[in-house]
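Course assignment 3, question 2. Fill in each field.
Student: A.L.
Task: Predict the tertiary structure for the chain below.
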Amino acid sequence: MINKVVSGADDAIKDIKDGDTLMLGGFGLCGIPENCITALVKKGIKNLTCIANNAGVDDFGIGLMLQTRQVKKMISSYVGENAEFERQLLSGELEVELIPQGTLATRCMAAGYGMPAIFTPAGVGTEVAEGKEIRNFNGKDYLMEYAFDADFALVKAWKGDTAGNLIFRSTSRNFNPVMAMAGKITIAEVEHLVEAGELDPDHIHTPGVYVHRIFQGENYEKRIEQRTTRKKD
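Answer field:
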């Protein structure tokens, strides 16, 4: 077996270069590849196209990369928590492609399954459909969307083994499994890295065949976007 284990985030992202297209797992700030994002900011790679459900917040997640002007284009579903994103969008500094959330997930899945395109009713009759092919199946119009073509997928799991098998915990499962399947090179950071054979095969969400590099991350903050608390009685 080829060794997939790398020493850390800096080693894992070492061949990501200017202009690459990246998928970044997570939903809001849940299950985001914190260590990889920090390494990308440190390395200063520019003109990136980022495919992610959202753009993080101003001072965390992909928001850190927006602050340093490393992102050329965002392909996302929801971007409402990031004032810097809004500023760059309105000023024309940032290209943005907004995609229905289900379409975003399915285009990731299609890339992982080796499918060139999907047909979806989402977006038909709206600005999303402008310039795209429409086909009619059984009397209903469907929009053709191409599978994503990402150079790298960066995902974060709760536990993984040295063969690259991954287990995601609770809601951090979100976009991570479909993106792990879809990158030409998939990089996984995990909270706990164990030897091959230690994970229960029935609990594995992403088989190691999809993962090219894996490392044990550190210093996870796991921030909450909007903390809501109840006053004591």
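Instructor remarks: The two ends are 59 Å apart (CA to CA). The longest strand covers residues 152-161.
Grade: pending
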